[in-house]
Design a protein that fits this description.
The protein is mainly α. The chain has helices at 23-38, 57-70, 93-105, 116-128, 144-152, 200-210, 226-235, 266-271, 276-284, 299-305, 320-333, 336-346, 364-371, 378-385, 396-403, 408-421, 427-441, 445-457, 465-472, 474-487, and strands at 10-13, 42-45, 109-112, 158-161, 168-173, 177-182, 190-192, 215-219, 242-246, 249-250, 316-317.
Length: 493
């Protein structure tokens, strides 16, 4: 009987800890999480670390931290445990050995003593004939006496599954429909290596059954593995879960998304100032659509509206321009206090670490109202506000503009006079005084403010000038203008 009743939905995200959490993996985790939350089910995190050479503790930490940052909490798995643990495959060796022994006892699997040289020779022969290599099952026919001799000789063995040589194995996929695989092309594949470490397809099949998984949602690069896992489950006498294989994520060149396309890991997007809500929202739309029109969804709305029926089978293109737009939209819609808190989390990894607040410097919350509408990423905050905390570094274009403006020294002296005398020292009072001065000089306000902007920030683009001068303070604003007049315009009258 299929384990698909609503209350019993159990899904899993099962990454291999061989690197960073790729956005493709993050989307897989998100879809599993959304199905579990929308159905009142259980989301399991399982670490598939049977690749001993490539799996690392650092990668496990990065995956776990990335999921936590995205807000994809799990109900069972590392750091919290659960009734079906342990949740790392290399800690489940006893279960795999038990299942393999059972298959051997039932003669549904057998030990294979073929040497690496024998197998390499068979592969070479297949290549010469232009045929795919399929293990010929020769060790199926070994008798007990021969096996005993092999063991006495110290021959290593693997455990292979007896697979059907006729007919097809059909995967009933919730995304791709029915996909048929010829059994004869599968061959008797290995379940357990000579080292005792289970192969991917054996461990996954055993774990999905043991953990009561009802739906396996993963990338469609795993679709060719599915018939093997179905064969293992059938040999164990178990009903399989339902499968949903997600379309690939491509770069704009239609090649599978990889490092050559830019950032591809959750950690990189986080470091570059993307917010979790935007990344989750965008990843949800890479393969799924609610109505073909709605773009922005809160996590609560995604949980409410998500269904596997709306996942398409066509590969999705990762559009960084759209993600950037979406990220900016989320940032601009945040309450200022929430944005300030996000920036406090983000800035310690930037060159502004430890600088906001204290020693007369402005607080983050003081600057948020000045820049929120300009931000597309949290990193933009650093670019727009670094001059409040660090010595002014002049952009080449800005300095050229300043020095080529013959009226700049005079305009700066007028501005300095206003800053020195205006009361109260507020953005409103500064604005009123500078507007009046520009009118009196018959100079456009923008032309008047440009040298002031460059003098106090070193930039062509800053937050609003009046607010900037107010936050910098009277003394610091004057100091910066006087520094420019004495250093950059020395000798000008």
């Amino acid at each position: 009987m299929e384990r698909t009743d609503k209350a019993g939905v159990r899904v899993r995200f099962a990454p291999s800890p061989t690197g960073h959490l790729h956005v493709g993996g993050a989307r897989t985790a998100l879809y599993n999480w959304l199905l579990a939350r929308s159905q009142g089910g259980t989301f399991v995190l399982r670490i598939e670390d049977t690749d001993l050479e490539r799996s690392t503790e650092q990668a496990i930490d990065q995956i776990v931290d990335g999921l936590q940052w995205l807000g994809l909490d799990w109900d069972e798995g590392p750091r919290i445990g659960g009734p079906h643990g342990p949740y790392r495959q290399m800690e489940r060796a006893g279960l795999y050995a038990e299942k393999a022994d059972g298959l051997l006892a039932d003669r549904k699997a057998y030990r294979c003593y073929c040497s690496a040289e024998d197998l390499d020779a068979a592969r070479s022969q297949a290549r010469e004939k232009g045929e795919p290599y399929i293990y010929d099952g020769r060790c199926q026919r070994l008798d007990g006496d021969t096996e005993a001799v092999f063991r006495e000789e110290g021959r290593q063995s693997v455990i292979r599954l007896r697979t059907p040589t006729t007919g097809n194995t059909v995967v009933k996929d919730l995304v791709h429909g029915e996909v048929s695989f010829e059994n004869v092309l599968c061959g008797d594949f290995i379940l357990v290596r000579s080292s005792g470490v289970p192969t991917y397809n054996f461990a996954v099949a055993v774990d999905d059954i043991a953990m009561g998984i009802t739906h396996v949602i993963r990338g469609d690069d795993h679709l060719p593995n599915t018939p093997k896992q179905l064969m293992v489950m059938a040999a164990m006498g178990e009903e399989p879960p339902q499968y949903a294989h997600l379309p690939l994520i491509l770069g704009t060149d239609r090649a599978p998304l990889s490092k050559r396309h830019g950032d591809v890991s959750v950690e990189e997007f986080r470091e570059h100032g993307y917010v979790r809500e935007a990344l989750c929202n965008y990843l949800a739309l890479l393969g799924w659509s609610f109505d073909g029109e709605t773009t922005l969804f809160s996590m609560e709305e995604l949980v409410e509206k998500f269904s596997l029926e709306r996942v398409g089978s066509t590969a999705a293109v990762f559009d960084r321009v759209k993600l950037l737009w979406m990220n900016g939209s989320y940032i601009r819609d945040m309450e200022p206090i929430e944005l300030a808190e996000r920036l406090e989390e983000f800035l310690p990894s930037t060159r502004l670490a430890g600088l906001p607040g204290g020693e007369g410097r402005p607080e983050i919350a003081d600057l948020v109202p000045l820049v929120q509408e300009k931000l597309k990423t949290l990193a933009d905050f650093v670019e727009l506000t670094d001059f409040f905390f660090l010595p002014v570094e002049f952009e080449e274009k800005a300095l050229d503009k300043l020095l080529s403006n013959g009226e700049a020294p005079a305009l700066l002296r007028v501005a300095a006079g206003i800053i020195a005398e205006v009361e109260p020292y507020s953005s409103e009072a500064i604005e009123a005084a500078m507007r009046k001065a520009a009118e009196d000089m018959q100079v456009k306000l923008g032309k008047f403010l440009q040298p002031v902007r460059i003098a106090v920030s070193g930039k062509m683009v800053t937050p609003g000038m009046f607010e900037t001068l107010s936050v910098l303070g009277r003394e610091e604003s004057l100091r910066r203008i006087e520094h420019v007049l004495s250093k950059q315009f020395k000798g000008h009258s």
